[in-house]
Design a protein that fits this description.
The protein is mostly helical and 151 residues long. It has three helices and two strands. The chain has helices spanning 39-101, 103-112, 141-150, and strands at residues 132-133, 139-140. One of its GO terms (molecular function) is DNA binding.
Length: 151
């Protein structure tokens, strides 16, 4: 079965097919159809939509408040656990301080380091300090110089 292909001329512009005009217009007399939806129904639908939107906004705000509350509670729990850890650490440090500061521990540690108790104790007495302060708690050079000259 052989099929025939259209022949094209390449030296001429392509010919557009002609459309026939349908000049016949037919008018049917009648009346316009009434509105399919009453204005009252449209108002009710708009009001229902407004109520639905208000409900959606309230629901979103409630979810936001709930999420904020949960976030605050979680942060509170983390802070509470940190306070508990710090308290237990503080208690263990106090115990360690009391153990390390006890005289028996100091003597034991000194003997481990090769230190011995002094056979005699002497004290040094210093003269009065010549440095003086003014009324605001700052060092006063002139008052210090006069105190040094008076010694």
């Amino acid at each position: 079965m052989a099929t025939a292909a259209r022949a094209y001329r390449y030296d001429a512009a392509p010919v557009q097919p002609r459309r026939e005009r349908n000049t016949q217009v037919r008018v049917v007399p009648g009346t316009r159809q009434a509105d399919a939806v009453s204005p009252l129904f449209v108002t009710v639908v708009k009001a229902a939509f407004a109520v639905l939107m208000v409900f959606a906004v309230v629901a979103c705000v409630r979810v936001w408040f709930t999420a904020a509350t949960v976030n605050t509670l979680l942060e509170s729990q983390v802070t509470s656990s940190q306070v508990d850890q710090i308290r237990s650490s503080s208690e263990s440090l106090q115990v360690q301080k009391s153990v390390l500061a006890s005289p028996s521990h100091v003597k034991e540690r000194a003997s481990q380091l090769g230190l011995v108790e002094a056979s005699s104790v002497e004290s040094v007495t210093l003269d009065t300090d010549v440095v003086t302060y003014d009324g605001q708690g700052n060092l006063s050079l002139s008052a210090s110089l006069s105190a040094a000259a008076g010694i």
